[in-house]
Design brief:
Blueprint (H helix, E strand, L loop, with lengths): L11 H12 L21 H19 L9 H10 L1
């Protein structure tokens, strides 16, 4: 399981306390980043921009009829199997 925690107004004491707490669990594999440049969604600006570009491409393909949407998996399977 992966857990991401973003604290926007933390200080060095809080950072040290979290790090000390995590170190008490020797089997826990963790990474702490301080002052990282992440968007409010928790992504790097580059990755978020890529996601937004892909979203726009997908919307355009849907509107032009290049891709379909389905109400259920059953409906999708029927469309695939029946051509």
């Amino acid at each position: 399981m992966q857990i991401t925690l973003q604290i926007n107004n933390g200080n060095q004491n809080l950072f040290n306390a979290i790090k000390a707490l995590l170190k008490t669990q020797p089997k826990l594999d963790f990474t702490l980043q301080k002052g990282s440049n992440l968007t409010v969604n928790g992504f790097t600006p580059e990755f978020e921009a890529e996601l937004l570009r892909e979203l726009e491409e997908t919307k355009k393909a849907y509107k032009s009829g290049k891709i379909k949407s389905y109400s259920s998996a059953k409906e999708m399977h029927e469309d695939i199997l029946n051509g």
